[in-house]
Amino acid sequence: YELPLLEHSLNTQLHGQHLAKHVINKLVPKHMKDAAPKKALVLSFHGWTGGGKTFVSEILAKNLFRRYDETGKSNFVRRMSCTEFNTNDKYLMAQWIRGNVTNAVKKCDRSLIIFDEMEVLVPGVIDAIKPFIDYSPVIDSIDYRKSIFIFLSNTGGTAITKATYEYHLSGRERTDLTMKDLEPLISSGAYNEEGGLYKSDIIEKNLIDAFVPFLPLEKKHIKLCIYDYLILHCNKSTPLVDPGEEFIRKVSDELEYFPPDTKLYSKTGCKRVGNKVDVEMEV
């Protein structure tokens, strides 16, 4: 794994998310360098769509596992979308999750396990992994303590946005927002809002190491996403010259913003940037 590159990737590719950068740059390297951690590292990413939750999980996978960076696949990265389940049987879902986690960690004790769209998971099912993320030394000859578990969820997104906007209205910089300001709101939202972490044992037992807020993105952040997309996917080495600042402004204006009076935040974050750029490039 490439820990210096992880920090560089987050600092240069992730926009508008100072808290996520801070938490991940602190906790992930610390966990990876620890030869005998007391428990698995568990991070829960929260925020509305397009803020960078999935993007950051990809950055982690690429920097922790070279094969994933080269091919987009690795036996040591297991991403489970909670929309995959074709049953409402909680027992079967729990068994499937436990089996996938066990198989991954059996192959590599430094596995990265990602649960996407946690908000649609049937409440109670995620507690199936509680023994794996608890302070348990070894379970059935498998040591889970070196692994990293990440939950991605939209829950708490409304509270994060409300707090961020109130901060803005008070005249303060969003970069002055702290984990102390937001983490209690997120953990409460995750525990009380309908979704995969609703009334979960893993929250009650404090097994999630950090609830990481992904803030709503402003137009200046959208422009940075457009800039990056032009370099990475459109072979534009100097986007401010070709296709130019006016092009970037035009694409950013194509997205919808809220609230109605200030239009400060993008409704879809950077999620639709690629499609908007591609359409404008063809016009």
Automatic annotation (TrEMBL):
Residues 217-278 form the Torsin-1A C-terminal domain. One of its GO terms (molecular function) is ATP binding. GO terms for biological process: cellular response to misfolded protein. GO terms for cellular component: cytoplasm; endomembrane system. It comes from the Eukaryota. Pfam families: TOR1A_C (PF21376), Torsin (PF06309). Belongs to the ClpA/ClpB family. Torsin subfamily. This is Torsin-1A C-terminal domain-containing protein. It comes from Oppiella nova.
